[in-house]
Amino acid sequence: MKILAIESSCDETAAAVVEDGRKILSSVVATQIESHKVFGGVVPEIASRMHIEAISGVVDEAMKKAGLDYTDLDAIGVTYAPGLIGALLVGVNFAKGLSLATGLPLIPVHHLRGHIASNYLTFPELEPPFMCLVVSGGHSHIVTVDDYTSFKIIGKTRDDAAGECLDKVARAMGIPYPGGVNLDKIAVNGNEKAYSLPHPRVEGSEFDFSFSGLKTAAINIIHNAEQKGEKVNREDLCASYLNAVTDCLCNNTVKAMKDYGFKKLALAGGVSANSVLRRKMTEFADENGWQLFLPELSLCGDNAAMIGSQAYYEYLKGNIASTHLNAYATMPIDNPVF
């Protein structure tokens, strides 16, 4: 089964053709990083306009690279939630138009479900059940993947997402956008013990995260140094901050793995590309005899191939949308509507 997938939830306009949920026939991503860099982060209105400009060409290129005509396709998948509402609407409406024009069924895909499915493309042998830590700029979730379309949230952030906190502290240090990626590179040369930072926990919810206080602590270090005319060792602060954030992610996930008795652990989302997080999770997996699944770096960020993979399983489940499909800025992974 060949599915054309479209992704436009944030600042990447992407299209891909995926076969049977496991094989990438083509994958095209048009990034907006350079356009947003001057603002230090994504500007929603600019993102929406750039999606409009790029989407037709990106879809055409994905089809050409796959060597297919629309008559060779079996369905169209699209990200419809969660994300920037204006950006999502561009992809959803384009997909609806294609569905009407071709008569192909339209498959709505939850963005986080797509991130989890990136592991199916990297590891064709991976099958549920397993536990997954989904970490990105907007989300931090510990999820049990009981089946391809059955998910349960075990823990999630109570405030800021891990990726958002990495980006904001990076910006406070003058590190250019995308902050989290560049912070990771700088941290390689730093001492992770140089600065003492809190490791917040949520009382009464042992698997939930809270990152806002940790973010504030790091920003206070920067501001206090500026007020005193002192310089912060950027490499050391990056390493110390990244160590604290990844400790929080790892500690809760490891406890959840042990308490729920899972032996397979996957990572997903943009922050799953972080070198420190990947290293620590590999060490924990080795210590506990778990199978660890880390998506290819090219599949960690937003892309349409992961949407095409999950669309296959949504289709098998019968999750087909009508042309009344709408986009949603927020939507739970475990109980979506469309």
If you had to describe this structure to a student in words, what would you say it looks like?
The chain is built from ten helices and ten strands. By secondary structure, it is an alpha/beta fold. It is globular. A five-stranded mixed β-sheet has the order 3-2-1-4-5, sandwiched between helices. It has a five-stranded mixed β-sheet with strand order 8-7-6-9-10, sandwiched between helices. It is 44% helix and 19% strand. The mean pLDDT is 96.
Question: Could you provide a short overview of the structure?
Answer:
This protein is α/β, with parallel strands linked by helices and 338 residues long. The chain has helices spanning 33-37, 44-66, 85-102, 111-122, 162-172, 179-187, 212-227, 234-260, 275-288, 305-317; strands spanning 2-7, 12-19, 23-31, 75-81, 106-110, 130-135, 140-147, 150-156, 264-268, 291-293. The model has no long low-confidence stretch (mean pLDDT 96).
